[in-house]
Amino acid sequence: MTLELQGIGVSRGIAIGKAHILFHNQPDIREYLIPEFSIEQELDRLRDAIEEARQQLKAIRNHIPANAPADVSSFIDTHILMLNDSSLTKVPLEMIQSRRCNAEWALQLQRDALINVFNEMDDPYLRTRRDDVDHVVNRIHRILTDQDTADHEIADGRLKGHIIIAEDLTPADTVLMQHQGIAAFVTEHGGATSHTTILARSLGIPAIVGVESIRRYIQDNEPLIIDGETGVLIAGADETTTREYQQRRADFAAHISSLSRYKSQPTKTQDGKSITLLANAELPDDLSTISNAGAQGIGLYRTEFLYMNRVAPPEEEEQLAAYRDVVEGMNNQPVTIRTFDLGADKTVDGGRKLTQTVVTNPALGLRAIRLCLNQPNMFRTQLRAILRASAYGKIKIMFPMIAALPELLQAQSLLEQCKQELDKEGLAYDRQIETGAMVEIPSSAICAEMFAQHVDFLSIGTNDLIQYTLAVDRIDDTVNYLYDPLHPAVLRLIHMTLEAGKKYDIPVSMCGEMAGDPRYIRLLLAMGLEHFSMHPNALLEVKQVINETNLSSLPDNTLQIMNMATPFEADVLLEQINA
Fold first, then answer.
1. Which of 144, 173, 205 is the last residue of a domain?
2. Is 511 a catalytic residue?
3. 475 and 511 fall within a common domain
4. Residue of 101, 372, 447, 511 marked active site
5. What is the rounded CA–CA span in Å between residue 299 and residue 301?
6. Higher pLDDT, 86 or 136
7. If pLDDT is split at 50, 70 and 90, which confidence band does 342 have?
C-alpha cells in the first residue's frame, strides 16, 4: 500500500532509497547531590567531557571535503566556539560548586536558561540558534553518560544511499552523514531557517522537515521517495510512480549541472533589461561561496554575529577588522552593511540583557534601530567602524526596521556626528558613503515615498515584512501555513515601495528569501524589481530565470495578482506568469 506524507520541503532534489531510522537516545538526566570531597572530581568530569566533545567536533570538521561551501565548516566552528563560551561551560562549573549537583544536572539547568533566552527572540534566524545550544549540550550529555557512538558517527558506509528519518539533526550529524553518502533526510522537527536545513541546501542534500511522528509510520529499510521541493514523502510507491520520480531526479540533476554556464554571463533579460544580483552574508567565511556564485556584491551583511554570546559588545577596532576583511575580500564590489539588528531579548553580555525590563512581546519591543538609538554609544562605535572600513572599499550603510522618519533622521544625525569625529582625528573614510533603510514592516512600506526622499536606497526585507503584515510566525508549525508571499497585502506593500523608488530615482533591492525563490522572480521583475539579494546558492538559478525571461511576453494581467482574493487564484496566475 502506498503512503504519502506531507512536510515542508527545505532543500530541493529528488531522492529514492531505503529508510534508515535514526534514534538519538536522549540520556535520562537527573539531579543528585555529590559529597563535598567529590566536587573537584565532578568539575574535572565536566571539563573532560567538554574537551572530548571539542575533539569530536574537530574530527568532524576534518572530514569536510575541501571543495565544500565555506559555510559548512562555519557551522561546526560555531559549535566548537560554544564550547569555549563561559555561558555554557563556566556557569555549569559554578553550579556544581555552589549547589553540589552532578555535572549532567548543572549543564541541563544552564541549557534550559539559554534556551529560554533564544525562545524569546523575534528574529527567526537567530531564534533557531537555540538548536545549536541543544546540539552541543546533548553531545556533552552523551559523553557524560557513557553512551555508545551513534550509528551515523561510524564511517563504515552503512548509510550510503539511505534516506535518514530522524526527530531532528544537528549540523554535525548532517556533515557526517553527507560524508557517508546519504541520499536525503526527513525530520519531524526543524524549520527553513535552521542551521541544519541551510547546511542541507549548501551540501545539495534533498531534505524535508516538519513531518510529525514520521518514525511511527516508516519502517527501517522501507523503500522511500522524497521530493525536497514539494515536501512530499512516498512510501511503498508502485513501479509507475517510481519511474516517474527517477526521471524527475535525472532531469533535476541535469538542470543543476547546466547552471554553471550562467556564472560568467551578464544578468540580463532577453529584451535587454540589466538586473543586479547580490548575495546575503553573515560571516567572513561566506566570501568564497559568494565569489564562486558570481555575485555582483553583498546586498545584506548581517553584523549580529559580532555581538552574540560574549561578555561585552565588540570594540571599534574589532569591528573595523571584521568589516575591512569583508570589503577587501569582495575586491571593490559593493558591500551593504546592516547595522546591528539586535533586540531587548538578544544577549550581548554573556546572559544579561541590555535592559532589565521584562519584554512581553520582543518582536514589537526594543530592537533593531530602536535599540541602536536607545544605546547611542554602542551604535556610534559600530558606525565609526563601518565608516573607517569604507576607506578600504565600497560600503553602504543600511538601517534596520525603520518605522518612522524621525528614527531615520536621528540615525543619520548620529552618522554625521561620527563623520565629524573622524575628520577631527584625521581618519579616512568614504565621504560619499551611501545610506539606506530596510523596508520590513508595513509602516515603512506605506511611508516609502517619505523615506525615499532622505536615503540613497531602500531594501525590502520580505521575511519580516510578510510576518508583520500577516501576523504570522513562519517557524511556528501551527500557523506557518498562513505565511504567504503572494498575499495581496504583501504584494501591494512591495509594489508601493518599488513605485516610491521609481518616483524618487533611487534603487530598491530585495534581500528576503522571496528574492531567491525562482517561483517569484518573473513576478518581481514585472513589478519593477531590478536588484535582488539572496543566499549565494540561489544565485545561478535566479540568474537563469532572469536571462530566460522576456518582460514584454509576460501576461498582460500579471500585476492583477495583487487583487487575487484567494491563494488558489494567486497560484494559478503565478503558474501562467512562469509558463
1. 144
2. yes
3. yes
4. 511
5. 7
6. 136
7. confident
